[in-house]
Amino acid sequence: ETQIHPAQAYVNETIGEEAARNLYHGAKPTECNCRSTNCIQLYCECFFQCRYCGSECTCKDCFNVPSRRDEIEQRVKKIAKRNRRAFIPTITADEAKKRHTGGCKCQKTACQKKYCPCFQSGLPCNSLCGCIGCKNTPGDVAQQKQQASEAKQNSQQLQHQNQFQKQPHLPSPQQLHQQELLQQQQQQQ
């Protein structure tokens, strides 16, 4: 029987098993490559996702394995004591309902800077946010994506035009005829 990760047990206890299952629904397992954290800090993607490191990970000196369950449990308790929502993802994994679960509290940036967790994630602000003067609404995000797409398209078109202009132009039939006449005249002389 597979043992449940201590962090997963903590999340289940904190928000309930059903809610925890929905948080991680559709989340793609990651492969960590931790070097100095022993995979028992939130920097470790596996540890943060409440799962043990696996054979696909390239981590060094890993403690995030079932045989070290007691040490992991102590670490989870220590982290949870400082931040009870530490193991709860801030962005829902479900693509259809993707949103920032904590919301933002931007006051001066209109949610247009990377300081805004919603903007940084490429998601619109939602009802959980307490932002002021928000310009990161679903319509704004769609418009930004459209503008980015158009800018990319325009850039590609300009690049294509520049390549075409750099290519040597072929002479017109009249120019070819004139060149032939010049060559004939030069040969006759």
Summarize the structure.
The protein has helices at 6-15, 17-24, 45-48, 69-82, 117-120, 138-166, 173-188.
Computed Rg: 29 Å
Q: Strand share of the residues?
A: under 5%
Please state the average pLDDT score: 79
Tell me the structural class.
mainly alpha
Multimer state: single chain
Main sheet record: none
| Elements, N to C (H/E) | HHHHHHH
Query: How helical, in percent, are the residues?
Result: 40-55%
State the shape.
elongated
What's the total number of strands? 0
Count of discrete alpha- or pi-helical segments spanning 4 or more residues: 7
**Uncertain stretches of 5 or more adjacent residues:** none
How many domains, in number, for the residues? Answer: 2
Instruction: Give the termini distance in whole angstroms.
Output: 99 Å
Features:
7 helices; 189 residues; mainly alpha; Tesmin/TSO1-like_CXC; Lin-54_fam; 2 domains
Question: Can you walk through the features of this model?
Answer:
It is a single chain. This protein has 189 residues and is mostly helical. It has two domains: 6-82, no CATH class; 103-159, no CATH class. It is 45% helix and 0% strand. It has helices spanning 6-15, 17-24, 45-48, 69-82, 117-120, 138-166, 173-188. α1 (6-15) crosses α2. The longest helix has 29 residues, at 138-166. It is elongated and about 100 Å long. The model has no long low-confidence stretch (mean pLDDT 79). It comes from Paramoeba aestuarina. Keywords: Nucleus. It is found in: Nucleus.
